[in-house]
Write a structure and sequence with these properties.
This protein has helices at about 15-25, 35-40, 50-60, 65-75, 85-90, 185-200, and strands spanning about 5-10, 30-35, 45, 80, 90, 105-110, 120-125, 135-140, 145-150, 155-160, 160-165, 170-175. Helix 1 (about 15-25) links the parallel strand 1 and strand 2 (about 30-35). By secondary structure, it is of the alpha/beta class. Helix content is about 30%, strand content about 30%. It is globular. Strands 2-1-3-4-12-11-10 form a seven-stranded mixed beta sheet.
Amino acid sequence: MTDAPVIGVLALQGDVREHLIALAAADAVARPVRRPEELAEVDGLVLPGGESTTISKLAVLFGVMEPLRARVRDGMPVYGTCAGLIMLADKILDPRSGQETVGGIDMIVRRNAFGRQNESFEAAVDVKGVEGDPVEGVFIRAPWVESVGARAEVLAEYDGHIVAVRQGNALATSFHPELTGDHRVHSLFVDMVRANREAESL
């Protein structure tokens, strides 16, 4: 597709390959992003699952944290899953020492809220904006959203906890849709990127 948006996946740590595959299946041109010059070439960015503290520190080390914050502030579409959701929070309830966030969504998150690795689970989640059957959510040491501000829209809840949020061009889920073969959440994000690109070209 000649008009396919170029979407990066922050490739410092975590399940990068799965997101690249899901984005390609959702008709985007997908690229790994590690450095500021690579960030400058994409229309949108996915922050993958992994370990949020490690991703935060590597982003600073690779010189990509400040340019990323600037682009998110300027409206670049961004989608965070699991650790990526934590990265997009304006506040973490229980941050580790030295942990920073990109910010972009007016929400407070709790790390590892659904339990440890051996308490990981799958569950059907109704996600606003995703048509058809519920999304199969894979929760791995997943965070949840304690609260959101007035500008953030709750897209999904599970067991009484917020697990998907959108604010403007920023999207975040507690779970990992990239691990299921269901690319509808990635398609939603690709549509957001495409709409933003069209708006910027007017």
